[in-house]
Amino acid sequence: MKLSDFKVLSFDCYGTLIDWESGILTALRPLLARAGVTSDGDSILAEFAALESAQQAATPDVPYAELLGVVHARLAARWGAPDDAAESARFGASIGDWPPFPDTVAALAALQSRYRLVILSNVDRMSFQATNRRLGVTFHAIHTAQDIGSYKPDLRNFRYFIDRLAEDGFLQEDILHVAQSLFHDHAPANAIGLASAWIDRRRGAEGWGATAAPPDGVRYDFRFETLADLADLAVWSA
Question: Of 108, 111, 155, 226, whose Cβ has the fewest other Cβ atoms within 10 Å?
Fold first, then answer.
């Protein structure tokens, strides 16, 4: 299997293109200060991940910005801080402020010259619009959890975007799914038989950061530490 075998790259966005872990921690600072939380960043992200994945499973039709507000309120309760609805809403609205990884914009520009680029994201349409302005490319298609009515790792999300690409004449074997999260993306890609490339943004750090732990046996077809590494290989192998 080679990168040149594919015509379409589908991307998870937050965690893969956008540095959501630093974005989340920055947006949580007011709550952390109010609650007197002194845990390390990875511990905070692990608590966030557990609540986020549970909330996505419980309320798959709630837009992501609103869902983040609920998660924020639950973190406040867990940490013994008074509820602050306005602060929770600001946390949910912070998505568009989360920064791209340093290599993202240039790598996407390089990859756009060779592939159709597609987004498959767990956010809502409005939040992604704010992010899209930071990414610097025009995507062939953008599919959000709000469009589909469920959150990854639900297989419906993957079937949905594969079916939309089929309407444009692309086969499943034309698609390489590019993502950081083994839980949200690679495990369901395995289940549906979709080729995938892992962007290992945490580079061997302990734990799973802002994502839930993946199931045993999850696999991927390519591994890169950065998106720039994928783009470099794609250009080199052209």
Answer: 155
Residue range(s) of every CATH 3.40.50.1000 domain in the chain: 3-19+99-236
CA nearest to 180, candidates 230, 142, 130: 230
All CATH 1.10.150.750 domain ranges of the chain, comma separated, are: 20-97
Cis peptide before 215 (omega within 30 of 0): no
Is 12 designated active site? yes
Written as one letter, the residue type at 31 is: L
Lowest mean pLDDT among 30-44, 150-164, 202-216: 202-216
Contact 85, 210 (CB under 8 A): no
Residue 178: enclosing H or E segment and its boundaries? strand 175-179
Fold category of 20-97 in CATH: DNA polymerase; domain 1 (1.10.150)
Q: Which residue in 12, 19, 124, 154 is the catalytic one? A: 12
Pairing of strands 222-224, 141-144: unpaired
Residue 114 carries which DSSP code? Answer: T
Domain 3-19+99-236: top CATH class: alpha beta
H-type alpha helices, 60-212? 64-78, 85-92, 104-112, 125-135, 145-148, 155-167, 187-192
pLDDT tens figures, 44-76? 999 999 999 999 999 999 999 999 999 999 999
Tell me the whole-structure pTM to 2 decimals: 0.94
